[in-house]
Amino acid sequence: MILSEKHIAFIENSLTLYGVEDSALREDLVDHICTYMEQEDSSDFNALYQKALQKFGGYASFQKLQLETNYQKFAKQIIAINKVKFSIGFMVILLLVMSLVFQMMAWPYANAWLLGAIALSVLVILPIHFYVKYKLSVHKFS
């Protein structure tokens, strides 16, 4: 069967309607569905479309694929955020060690190093940590 632009637009609109929001994923799915339908010999568009949907797992499968795609994009962000959190945590440890050394040697500014470590922990690491936990909980239930 040769598909017209009208058929392709219908397939694209139905995928959008059923939750495939990512344009690259939608284009790939439209391409796969159209290729499958063009390889078949039947001329009934509706029957071929339903058969193609069943072959690819139906709309629920497409929605699940969209969620997995979103999660993979989000996972890259989480990895970058965790690297930042690790780097700042390392700086906090260095500040704590500096504070301890300054305190043991009775040098000035020992409390400033300690205050810097506490400030980084409270103002940077904890908000980043809670942000990541919130985003993970949102993606878990979506």
Automatic annotation (TrEMBL):
> For this UniProt entry, which segments traverse the membrane?
86-106, 112-132
Q: Reply yes or no: does the keyword Transmembrane helix apply.
A: yes
Which keywords accompany this UniProt record?
Membrane, Transmembrane, Transmembrane helix
* Official protein name in the record: Uncharacterized protein
